[in-house]
Design a protein that fits this description.
hpI Integrase, Chain A, three-stranded antiparallel sheet, 3 strands, 3 domains
Length: 513
């Protein structure tokens, strides 16, 4: 069979009468691109099955031919469109295996072409770990080794052992002698992945800057004067104050790994000073919306998904709506929300009902527990029982699953929130901004609730929410003044209207009229 005949599609006018009636009734409101993909895929299936008709064996043979002869992305699009069409036209049969076949086509397909880079040189601002000096990489491995797992034949193992031996409980305790500002510190082996990444990137930026300056790049060469020049150089490049603070913090983390016997108290204090003077370039109060609008957006997305046929697109939309609604009701950090697992962070009772969210470790290394909102429990149950099985491929117990069957990354979840909020409000927001929305909305409703808000946001220091108190106060004042101004304007207009009616004078024409 030639390729042209194999992929010929029967137009919708040539479909069986029953299929055409069902299709016209069930696909109203579908997006144009999705409608075209499903219609083309089903038309190709009908052409493939001529003249014997279409049965399960024909569908399986067609799916195998598509996966074998077409490029991976094209095969995935066709198989997903076919699954959407068959869910509508033959809803009594399960078609989840087609979604799995689409994922297999991608996994087994040839590698995709690399994206084209923008023309022009890109300055190197961070040295990758693979390009670090061998001495630095050796220190890095040693610094992350657990105190219970000594590194053999390493020149810095003795220095590390001498320092960790002085730590309570062999370095496993939170309290470390000489910790800057009295804050608890932990051994690098127990750091969260985000902290390890910040340390790695912090040292990579320092190496890039030291190479441009032409000075020494060893950890022992990090001095007050050089850090001051490093900060000035970052500012000259246009880095935001908050970003500079984060880079210095990353450098401090890296030095705790590379030179654990050094006294970096002065660097901790300098980072604290930078943090206290760092002013965000963007005003959080601009465009701030009530948190109930975000919850309503998530609820609306789930309702739209329920009203559609049970397809992969509907499952993806329901997942997005549930994630947004849960984030509005429980604005935990995205690192915790994104890593939720069924039966671990999402606790179920004996009947399978979701009852609580349990995080063993937050950003502050403290555990956190909260109940699943009662209004969202049926939504979570519906996602687990009805929609998530369509998405699940090799995600294991991960709660959030992509349409390719893998556990979603934190960055993908952040993109989901930005895309939907931009489509609904004209401006996308990030997951951390939701915490500002939540605290400001709760503070505007009842300023006394900010103490509970601090607990919900997993703040170790309750004074962190004071900025939200100021935002809530200014928001309330703005709303009150708006109401007063509206009342004054309306009263003035009404008074002038009565005066014109009493005197019989017409309203003067506008200037230039």
């Amino acid at each position: 069979m030639s390729a042209r005949k194999r992929w010929r599609a029967v137009p919708a006018e040539g479909w069986p009468e029953s299929d055409r009636r069902t299709w016209a009734r069930a696909t109203r409101g579908w997006p144009a691109h999705r409608l075209k993909q499903a219609r083309t895929a089903y038309g190709q299936l009908l052409a493939y099955g001529e003249p014997d008709g279409v049965d399960q064996a024909t569908i399986a043979a067609f799916a195998e031919a598509v996966a074998w002869h077409r490029p991976p992305q094209s095969a995935r699009t066709t198989l997903r469109g076919l699954a959407d069409a068959l869910v509508v036209l033959r809803p009594e049969e399960p078609w989840g295996w087609l979604h799995e076949a689409a994922r297999d086509a991608i996994r087994a397909g040839r590698p995709q072409a690399a994206p084209k880079k923008r023309p022009g040189p890109t300055p190197t601002r961070r040295v990758a770990m693979a390009d670090w000096p061998d001495d630095h990489r050796a220190r890095w491995i040693t610094g992350f080794a657990s105190p219970a797992e000594p590194v053999v034949d390493d020149p810095y193992a003795a220095a590390l052992a001498a320092v960790t031996a002085a730590w309570p409980d062999g370095g496993t305790s939170d309290e470390v002698p000489g910790t800057a500002m009295g804050k608890p510190a932990r051994h690098p082996s127990s750091w969260r992945p985000a902290t390890c990444t910040a340390a790695e990137r912090g040292w990579g930026r320092w190496l890039a800057w030291a190479g441009e300056e032409g000075g020494a790049a060893a950890p022992e060469a990090v001095t007050r004067d050089r850090v001051a020049r490093y900060v000035d150089g970052l500012a000259a490049r246009g880095c935001a104050p908050k970003s500079i603070t984060a880079y210095v913090q990353g450098l401090r983390f890296a030095l705790r790994v590379l030179a654990p016997d050094g006294d970096w108290t002065w660097l901790s204090r300098q980072a604290t000073i930078l943090q206290s003077h760092a002013v965000p370039l963007r005003d959080k109060a601009i465009g701030l919306r009530p948190i109930e609008e975000l919850a309503a957006l998530g609820t609306r997305l789930m309702a739209e998904a329920v009203g559609q046929p049970l397809t992969l697109s509907a499952a993806t939309l329901y997942r997005d709506g549930l994630y947004i609604a849960l984030l509005a009701w429980r604005p935990k950090r995205i690192s915790n929300i994104g890593e939720m697992r069924i039966g671990r962070e999402l606790v179920l009772d004996q009947t399978g009902e979701p009852v609580s969210l349990l995080f063993d470790r937050t950003k502050n290394n403290d555990p956190s527990e909260s109940t699943v909102p009662v209004v969202l429990r049926p939504c979570v149950r519906a996602y687990l029982d009805r929609f998530r099985p369509l998405l699940d491929g090799q995600a294991g117990d991960a709660l959030w699953v992509s349409n390719r069957g893998a556990a979603m990354a934190v960055g993908s979840l952040a993109a989901v929130l930005r895309d939907h909020t931009k489509a609904a409000w004209g401006k996308g927001i990030g997951p951390h901004y939701v915490r500002t929305m939540y605290a400001t909305s709760m503070g505007a409703t009842d300023p006394r609730a900010l103490a509970q808000v601090s607990i919900m946001l997993d703040h170790r220091n309750s004074q962190t929410v004071e900025i939200y108190r100021a935002l809530a106060t200014s928001t309330n004042a703005s709303h009150a003044l708006d109401r007063m101004t509206t009342g004054i304007v309306e009263a003035t207009l009404a008074r002038r209207k009565k005066e014109r009616q009493r005197t019989g004078r017409k309203r003067p024409p506008a200037r230039g009229g």
